[in-house]
Each structure stands twice: as C-alpha cells, then as structure tokens.
Amino acid sequence: HSMDLTNKNIIFVAGLGGIGLDTSRELVKRSPKNLVILDRVDNPVAVAELKAMNPKVTVTYYPYDVTVPVVETVKLLKTIFAKVKTVDVLINGAGILDDHQIERTIAINFTGLVNTTTAMMEFWDKRKGGPGGVVVNICSVTGFNAIYQVPVYSASKAAVVSFTMSMAKLAHITGVTAFSVNPGITKTTLVHKFNSWLDVEPRVAELLLEHPTQTTQQCAQNFVKAIEANKNGAVWKLDLGRLDLVEWTKHWDSGI
Amino acid sequence: HSMDLTNKNIIFVAGLGGIGLDTSRELVKRSPKNLVILDRVDNPVAVAELKAMNPKVTVTYYPYDVTVPVVETVKLLKTIFAKVKTVDVLINGAGILDDHQIERTIAINFTGLVNTTTAMMEFWDKRKGGPGGVVVNICSVTGFNAIYQVPVYSASKAAVVSFTMSMAKLAHITGVTAFSVNPGITKTTLVHKFNSWLDVEPRVAELLLEHPTQTTQQCAQNFVKAIEANKNGAVWKLDLGRLDLVEWTKHWDSGI
C-alpha cells in the first residue's frame, strides 16, 4: 500500500510554488528517477538547486499554465511521456488567492486541476490500456470550512476536495487512485497579502497571521509523508505542523 | 425572523427550470408583488400559466444567461430595479448536469452563481447604502457527498454550498443573508439522462433512478418552506419529500 519514491517518476504542477518548492526539495531527497516540474514561471535558481541536491535525480522544468485547454495539456504530457516513458505520480498544486479575480480563481484552482487530471487520464486510464497512477491534489483546509472573507477561493477549494474524493471512488474503474493534501495557514507569499471578496475585510491576511501558522518546511515534510502513505481517498489535513486524516461526514448517499 | 412572502419582490434565476417552475408556482400562491423570472430560454406557456394563477402577482420574464460578465448582469438588474424599486429575495437556480462539459458545468453552476450574486451586491450591500436582502442558492446534496460518477458536477455543487455558507457569515458586513437549498435526486429532465465524467458509468442516470426519489412538487413545497423559515446560514436538505437542516462539520477554523 505505501509507496517508496525511489526511482519513481513524478510530475509536479506548481512544484516551484510557495509550498511546492519545499515539497520538491523533500521529494528530491527520496531519490525519484525523474521530478518533472510544470510551473507557470521558471525559477532557474530553484531548479538548479534541486538538480544539485541529489545527482541521482533528473529534475526537468516545463512552462505550464493550467488554464490552457485539455488538448494543450495532452500535448505537453505526450512530450513528457516520450522522455520518461512512465509516470507514477501527478501532483496538482496550482493555486491563487485573490477574491477580486473570481473567474481566474475558479479557472486555476478548480478548472485547471480538473483539466490537468482529465488530460492525464488519456495516459493512465486502465480502460485505455494505461497502467493507472496516483493523483495528489493540493487543496486546502478552507475547502472543509471557509475563510469566509474569501468565499470564492474557499469554494474553489471545496470543489477540489470533492473532486478528489470522487476520483478515489472511481479508482476501480480507471486504475487511478487519488487523495488530497489540505494545508492549513502556511507562511507563503500567497497568504502574505490578498484581496477579500468585495473588500469585505481588507485586513484578512493580517488577521489570519495573528493566529498560529506553520512553515512551508513543516508542511512539505508532512506532504511527502502523505504521498508515502499512498492512501486512496484520504483527505489529509496538514495544519500547525501536524498531519491528520479527516473523516468526511456523510450527509447524503447516492446509493450507487 | 421568518418571512411572509406577501407583497415581496423576488428575482428567480432559472425560475422556469425543472425544480424552478414548480417552485415558481408555489411562490405565486403566496401572493408576492413581483416574481421576476430570469431564464436562458423563454417558456411563454409556463409564464402565462403563472400570470393566470394569481392576479395579485406581477410575473415578468427576462432572458438571462448566467455566464455573462458581471457588468452585463448589473445592467439587467438596473432595468429590473427601475421597474420594481426594491428586491427582497434573489434565488439562484441555474444548473446543468453533464460531466462531458467541464468548463460549462463550472461556468454555470459555480461562476454564474457567484457572479449573479456579486452583481446583486451593487444594489443590496449596506456599505453602499443598500437595504440588504436574502440570497437563496439552489445547490445540491451532491455538494455534501458526491455522485462520484459526475465528479465535476458534484464539485461545482460543493463549491456553491461553501460559497453560500461564507455569504451568510458576511451578513453582518453586507446586510445580505444567505442560505442554501439542497435537493436530493428529484425527477426532472436534468437527471433523466446525463453524461458521466469520461464515461466512467454510462448508466449513472438509470442507476440513480432505481433508488427512491422525490417529485418536483414535493421539492418545491419544501423549497418555499425553507424560504419562509428565512434562516441565515442554513444548509437545507430537500430529499425524499423531507426538509431537514444539515449541521456542517467543523474540521478546521480560520479563527477570524
């Protein structure tokens, strides 16, 4: 059940981001064969650092914007598969926090994650002869209970928590397992300063940071522990330096 | 606390839809002053029927597509406010169920609801001198626990459940209260036949309808009861002919 990352091939969307970069560092320590980082903006210094950390690991970077249509993502993945042959893990980590930008928040945090995953299914779906794989979605504790001053961001995170739970239940059909990693407030540039919806609370970032938080390093260590636990359907809470399983409440059951 | 709908002005987005039309019929029985129906497609027969039902009520129809930009919605609302002067209740009911259409599902079920509500805040927000108002969002029990064969639809509904709970918590700032009405499987054309994500379950509609369901009439009656209860922050489950409050689980607290 648990996963040894040694020699594995990992695609990490937003692997240079706030939580992403420290998680990439932790992943490189585990000696995967390939760490393929897709991110909107390059950070050559960070990529060079990751390459230098562990000579056993091939670290590559491709520019990728999660808001492109599925067919574009499929093209990029074809290029990547041609080089690495197989991919074991896809980590979806792209996200923005700015409730002035409703469409963009939804496009990146929700649609982008769904589309990237949908594109990956072309290669992984066992109904198409694929080998299956593991999807790790970086969602957020705000998907459980909102930061109500950023209702659009929080709602987009509720969406991806739900989507990930559904994917896990589809694993018997697709061969693709999934779990979500839900960080609490983590000291990144994302939460340093951000806009609330209709400016309902101009001080939302400051107020949040008056409460206990965690560092990106703490979050990254628990992130990789969650990947190694490799638990289909898990909803992991990564808050205040802890790693906990969330038991989702059943309010309704489709029966099917 | 509870609301008497007599003489009230109501805007109902998708008031001619599957659940919408029967809910419009129930609303008209309560003798509001105005029932303003916004819907993508006109249904002159249904509108005529609503008009004939109760001569005390002015029923009007405007074409409206929830995927238009906020500024377009603001324009339409200006026209409506010019006629009715005040609006007491906004009901957001636009939705599609088709997991082949990822972008469109998200645009209608999630972004459309957020944008329509955001446009309404221009007129209602007490920080702008507005009188406040009540937002009623038609979400879905699949926002609590997915129909995992339609993960995109279900996720879009999880998003609007979350958004609605946030709006309710912002009522002390905006003057606008909100609650969600979450139907279970209701016998509408929406659930008669629909596409699952990547065709994971071609028989999803049939399978669902093998289990107990409710009629649109049952749903509509409980819908109007929920509006009359007028409970800010409520998460109403309308399933199997029943009306129940859902207690949302606290997995995390922002502390602010």
From TrEMBL, chains A, B:
Q: What is its EC number?
A: 1.1.1.1
Q: What is one process in the GO biological process aspect for this record?
A: alcohol metabolic process
GO molecular function, a single term: alcohol dehydrogenase (NAD+) activity
- Enumerate the InterPro entries for this protein: ADH_Drosophila-type, NAD(P)-bd_dom_sf, Sc_DH/Rdtase_CS, SDR_fam
Superkingdom: Eukaryota
Classification via Pfam families: adh_short (PF00106)
Subunit details for this protein? Homodimer.
- Record-stated family: Belongs to the short-chain dehydrogenases/reductases (SDR) family.
Q: What is this protein called?
A: Alcohol dehydrogenase
